[in-house]
TrEMBL record:
Domain PG-1098 ferredoxin-like: 278-320
Origin species: Flavobacterium urumqiense
Coiled coil location: none
InterPro entries: PG_1098_Fer, SAM-dependent_MTases_sf, Thump-like
Protein name from the UniProt record: Uncharacterized protein
Ranges where the THUMP-like domain occurs: 321-391
One family name in Pfam for this protein: Thump_like
Amino acid sequence: MDINILNSEIQEFIQKYIGTSISKLALQKNPFPKVEWISILNQIEAKTKAKDKLPTWFSTNNIIYPAKISIEQTSSEKTALYKSSIVSGASLIDLTGGFGVDDYYFAKKIKTVAHCEINSDLSNLVQHNFQQLDAKNINCYSGDSLATLIALNKKWDWMYIDPSRRNNAKGKVFMLKDCLPNVPENIDFYFKNSDSILIKTAPLLDISAGLLELKNVKNIHIVALENEVKELLWELHKGYSGAIIIKTVNINKDKTETFEFILNEKLELPHFSLPQKYLYEPNSAIMKSGGFDEVSSFFKINKLHKFSHLYTSQGLIDFPGRIFEILHTLPYNKTEIKIHLENKQANITTRNFPDTVESIRKKWKIKDGGNVFCFFTTDENNHKIVLICTKIK
């Protein structure tokens, strides 16, 4: 951490060039020879990334940023705030502190927070930032988190872990044992230090795969931001062996959508019907959860098809996802498509349909955008259909 980066003239320069192309700036001569040009450019790039994601950091003076990738990988303030709603008590230890966004929000709920970070430079940087943010109840510890746990030798009300993927772990879907720290390998030791553990994983982790590796799971939170799933949160409680609750959360600018259900609960078979007046598309958190029959049961709406994951009703209901009014229901054939969609403009979605959006656009010369929304899907009779809709929400 180069403290010279906090020079007032350098800070003014960084602020001035927020949002500027770094590749163009890099060609300029460094106006501050006492500080490496690459370091200044990194601050501009990272702070630009933080503007929307971390507004508290962005608007606080004398914040020092790590590499841009660390900003990209850290929690947003909105998801960190949600995580803080899960924990309670007097103490929490974060074994994988990183840039410290989660801990800043934990510290608003918890009396004492410990931030553990194996990278000493990042640990020092975060400690400096916490001082600027006036977060006085967070203690930073540099080094291996297991060694820190042993050295502190105390029982914590909560433990938080955000394992990172090892460099040699290949494949899109990875196991927790392929991450650092190795949670499945160390879970018994962790439970000696805390009865409540919150684990964050990337959305790519399959829920059933995670459950094979973890024990004492009580709740699984699927957190989406503006309809993009950002993280899975696994809530473990020592000795727990009851039902597992899936909690889906979609944080929007004006409203947070929530829906929860008991995993593997026996339900009545969902009802199916042909398209009625309204069409419902679940948000991405629900799509990740796989709770498609649960949606039908809870909201008492019909599914179009077992694998379409679209729902319909005659009367309008409030729903955690997009809502449309169906204007036309067409069979998918050349005559109908030529009349209604060829050479026109529409937003296209496919669900349980053999053709891709790209191939449909190309085949029928349909431009993207506009106020018309088309769903290419399959109905309960296995017929390929097109729903032409207008968006309500």
